[in-house]
TrEMBL record:
The protein's name in its UniProt record: ribonuclease H
Molecular function (Gene Ontology), one example: RNA-DNA hybrid ribonuclease activity
Organism: Hemibagrus guttatus
Family to which this protein belongs: Belongs to the beta type-B retroviral polymerase family. HERV class-II K(HML-2) pol subfamily.
Root EC class: hydrolase
UniProt domain Reverse transcriptase: residue ranges: 1-177
EC identifiers of the protein: 3.1.26.4
Superkingdom classification of source: Eukaryota
Amino acid sequence: MEKYRDDQRELHCVFVDLEKVYDRVPREELWYCMRKSGVAEKYVRVVQDMYERSWTVVRCAVGQTEEFKVEVGLHQGSALSPFLFAIVMDLLSEEVRQESPWTMMFADDIVICSESREQVEENLERWRFALERRGMKVSCSKTEYMCVNEREGSGTVRLQGEEVKKVQEFKYLGSTVQSNGECGKEVKKRVQAGWNGWRKVSGVLCDRKISARIKGKVYKTVVRPAMLYGLETPSLRKRQESELEVAELKMLRSIDKSLFQNDIPTTALTFSFNHIID
């Protein structure tokens, strides 16, 4: 996105949402995909035994319904279900999936990218057809479209005659993607996440009886990962780097009130705590 922004070229992205995805996986499709992926037959039979004679009830405030049989979908809450779903999606999308970065997929989080609106609309329809003929369903109301470096009159994307919602930002895999290619909003959210983490462990970090080394380990484990999550890849501007640095220095000075002294240089403070943390 940054490259397209710098080159003043448009990049069209559609974030595809699948409706009730775990509940719609056909069982026969699951067995087929497992065998097609090279899963040993004995393991296929083990999974089939797990799913055979599946019954459930609906519980509400006035009681629960009679038992009824479940013949479609993956088990909710099972540690195996995400792996089985990944196998199914890998096979179902094989005929329409393009190489990264034009198609990016993590479980059911799908992004389709193209340099033209017409092409991304065509690719979206191909994905819809490939998924729905195998039992899945694309939710048009939750699928969203974003254009990076948009020129005037770029238009919208339609799916089966229905207009896909156009957005200026989208949260994908925990990180906010902006249509202008910037990451300012994500940096602000990371700073806020860092402060939230700091408040959770402030009782430890501000306790004078606890050694600086233990405080450093707690800070490195809880606060810093929350602040830096997802910021390894985007190109930060000096202003955004400064926001992160200022937030961290405030946290570190809050750990030890004596560090509020004006005669302690910022570089010395940072070096001192980095030595403790690392």
